[in-house]
Write a structure and sequence with these properties.
The protein has 317 residues and is α/β, with parallel strands linked by helices. A 7-stranded parallel sheet has the order 8-7-6-9-10-11-12, sandwiched between helices. β11, α11 and β12 form a beta-alpha-beta unit. α1 packs parallel to α12, α5 crosses α7 and α8 packs parallel to α9. The chain is elongated. The structure holds ligand A2R. Ligand A2R binds next to α7.
Length: 317
């Protein structure tokens, strides 16, 4: 054990805690009866932070309290819980778990899309409730002949697109940068993309720049046969506008893995039959979560051994 002090504000998988314990002096803030007093006492020694979405905002207010902080290692590819610009301004490194979960989230996106279009959870409920014996399940919509729009053709978005190629659908995308090397049709606004598609999959990062990117106008453009899939962040969609669009038939259906105020899902959404709701499962397989945890550990070890992070976010790369 060295005297390098790492702060963990909220619990992480046991393997991560064990690995960090073996290598560093690990401060488990959530176990302290008075976290604030504990932090005040130990803050001057803290050089690394192991963060996740349960840890609360990692921003200037926390950085002010941690004068020796060198690195924030985030458990997750999305780091909208961290003010990475503020970290960069102070010379604090921020890492995420990019690269080890892209395929898992893309698999989930395709599963959610198929479940939503073919109404698989509804059909499962139909069998369990003994309703098949009274008659066949109603015919579903189809993926056949659809154009799928990907909002955010980044690392995960490209894996979604590659999987969609196997489904023989037309693929289009929007993001701020046009990428002609990616072989899909580009649209220069979210509304233009939605107008050209009847499935819209959101897979952009969260945060202020993408807040309510999917708004009432985008849903209107998606149209009455439209299906919206959100595997990005709840903040990316205007949830009130989405509920209204589903209620009024502005769009046909939605498959959601993320929500504005997790783990709270609006009652109106839960009561709707034309939505498939998942409890933020994107990367949530045993294998992928283990790989993410290992990358959190590896980033901290690499930083304190060599002064280099493995997967720095763009703001601090
Ligand atoms: O806009 P660009 O050219 O920087 O493309 C990025 C796009 N993007 C946006 N598109 C439209 N409006 C924006 N304001 C905007 N901001 C970013 O999202 C890029 O193509 C994509 C993000 O790709 P990556 O950085 O490779 O992220 P990754 O690993 O695909 O994950 C995306 C998000 C995570 O941050 C989690 O929130 C969620 O998926 O699991």
């Amino acid at each position: 054990m060295t005297e390098t002090h790492i702060l963990m504000p909220a619990p992480m998988p046991a393997a991560v805690i064990a690995a960090l314990d073996a290598r560093f002096t690990l401060h488990r803030l959530w176990e302290q009866p008075d976290p604030d007093a504990y932090l005040a006492e130990h803050a001057p020694a803290i050089r690394g932070l192991a963060a996740n979405t349960l840890a609360g905002r990692v921003d200037d207010a926390l950085f002010d309290r941690l004068p020796a902080l060198e690195i924030v290692a985030n458990f997750g590819v999305g780091y909208d819980n961290i003010d990475a610009q503020a970290a960069a301004a102070r010379g604090i490194m921020v890492t995420n778990t990019s690269g080890v979960l892209d395929a898992e989230v893309a698999d989930l996106a395709l599963g959610l899309l198929l479940a939503t279009v073919r109404r698989l959870p509804q059909a499962d409920r139909y069998v369990r409730e003994g309703r098949w014996e009274q008659g066949s399940f109603p015919l579903s919509p189809t993926l056949r002949g659809r154009t799928v729009g990907i909002l955010g053709l980044g690392a995960i978005g490209q894996q979604i697109a590659r999987r969609l190629e196997g489904f023989d659908v037309a693929i289009a995308y929007h993001q701020r940068t046009r990428r002609d090397d990616r072989g899909y049709t580009y649209h220069d606004t979210p509304v233009a993309l939605a107008a050209a598609c009847d499935v819209l999959i959101a897979i952009v990062p969260g945060g202020a720049a993408t807040r309510h990117l999917v708004n009432a106008a985008v849903l209107e453009a998606l149209g009455k046969d439209g299906i919206f899939i959100n595997v990005a962040r709840g903040s990316v969609a205007d949830e009130a506008a989405l509920i209204a669009a589903l209620r009024e038939g502005t769009i046909l259906a939605a498959g959601l893995d993320v929500y504005a105020d997790e783990p709270h899902v609006p009652a109106e959404l839960r009561a709707m039959d034309n939505v498939v709701l998942l409890p933020h499962l994107g990367s949530a397989s045993e294998q992928t979560r283990a790989a993410m945890g290992q990358l959190v550990v590896d980033n901290l070890v690499s930083w304190f051994d060599t002064g280099k992070a493995l997967t720095a976010v763009p703001e601090t790369a």
